[in-house]
Amino acid sequence: MSQASIKPMRILLLGSGGREHALADAIKTSPLCAELHSAPGNAGIAQIAACHDVKAEDVSAVVALAQKLEIDFVVVGPETPLVAGVVDALAEKNILAFGPKQAAAQLEGSKAFMKDVVVAAKIPTATHEVFTDAESAKANIQKRGAPIVIKTDGLAAGKGVTVAMSLDEARNAIDEAMTDKVFAEAGAKLVIEDYMEGPEVSVFALCDGARAICLGAAQDHKRVGDGDTGPNTGGMGAYSPVRIATPEFLQDVMTRFIEPTLTEMQKRGAPYKGILYAGLMVTAQGPKLIEYNIRFGDPETQVVVPRLQTDLLELFYLAAQGKLNEAPEIKFSSHHALCVVMAAKGYPGAVEKGSIIHGLEKAAQENVKIYHAGTKLNSQNEVTANGGRVLNIIGFGADLKTAQATAYDATKQIDWPQGFYRHDIGWRELQ
Ligand code: AMP
Ligand code: GLY
């Protein structure tokens, strides 16, 4: 299918983060985009799309909105609506969407399901066991020893994983999930797996149910503090490309991880369409799968998508149609990109909303992109903080060092005393 044979479409993009602002930016430039709508969007997305006050995870409201707007194609950013079955509900109304159906979304919705698929497909990963009661879970960690990793089965907004360096820490994690029910139903089942060590890399595969194409790789910074210290977050910064993710490495990931996963999902009657995000750890024994996510990463998208020179909307559309055999060649700019996340003080804990952000225009220098995450316009039309992760400042350059310097120069222009950021994004690669 050549681009000329696809009619320009009315697009609805679901989500409100920096990932969605980056996706909106790419979709908007496609000749296949006739109109761009977003639900709910943020103050940045509102500059390029019509935003609608509908929560992305409110499936029936999303379907009603898509019908009202006569949407041709829905692009889903976050995992929650996918796990809630938004793609299935839209399909029932004959509305095409990019993302996995509910049965396939279990690859992220249930870590026990994901591990079962991965083991069946003979993909390298940490050895695991699944538990539904605290007593057996504790007996298991006692037998296996620390360090050990405890994961809630269900979605826990990135907070359901404990990498326990001692048995006490592991026991606490089991109690928190199973006795105190901190994660509600998501923690009723636990996956306990072996501890792995090595650099991490996120690889993105575009899948159409049967075929997959690599859409690049990025490195995230999950800890809140400089030098990778403090609690885990959704991600405080990212860069792309990544040195260890050579073309050979990526080809190996496609052959030994992604393709067997697609085959196994087909076997289970749940073909996988959408972005499959492989979180990998490069151990002394080679790459091993930490987890699958059923969507692009945030903030990884903010450094991968702006480097993509192929029409993203056309790729999404072909994947959703099961026609990736007709996809154009994937091309990336040779530039490096580095993203600094600005978060509200207190993140990943509780944060205050409503503080005013100044300096956005000054920061928007050459070779810089600013993607909004938790932002909202107040009644005076000022950009205010409206969440934990608030802004993404992306610098581009011929090498990573230049991209880093550019991103931090721009970040310093932002006048927002209630915010903070890490000062060392990219440090491992630049060492
Ligand atoms: P996940 O949500 O599964 O990606 O886990 C969050 C983070 O916990 C990962 O990015 C890793 O840094 C860490 N992690 C998860 N599983 C393991 C493991 N088996 N061994 C060591 N670290 C892990
Ligand atoms: N940055 C990690 C994620 O999107 O899950």
Model description:
The chain is α+β, with helices and mostly antiparallel strands and about 425 residues long. It has four domains: about 10-100, Rossmann fold (3-Layer(aba) Sandwich); about 125-195, ATP-grasp fold, A domain (Dna Ligase, domain 1); about 195-325, ATP-grasp fold, B domain (D-amino Acid Aminotransferase, Chain A, domain 1), CATH 3.30.470; about 335-430, Alpha-Beta Complex (Glycinamide Ribonucleotide Synthetase, Chain A, domain 4). The protein is about 30% helix and about 30% strand. The protein has 14 helices and 22 strands. The strands form five sheets. Strands 10, 11, 14, 15, 16, 17, 18, 21 and 22 form a nine-stranded antiparallel sheet that branches. Strands 3-2-1-4-5 form a five-stranded parallel sheet, with helices on both faces. A four-stranded antiparallel sheet has the order 6-9-7-8, sandwiched between helices. A hairpin with a 2-residue loop joins strand 10 and strand 11 (about 210-220). The longest helix is centred in the middle third of the chain and has 21 residues, at about 245-265. The protein starts with 8 loop residues before the first strand and ends with a helix. The mean pLDDT is about 95. The structure holds adenosine monophosphate (AMP) and glycine. Glycine binds next to loops.
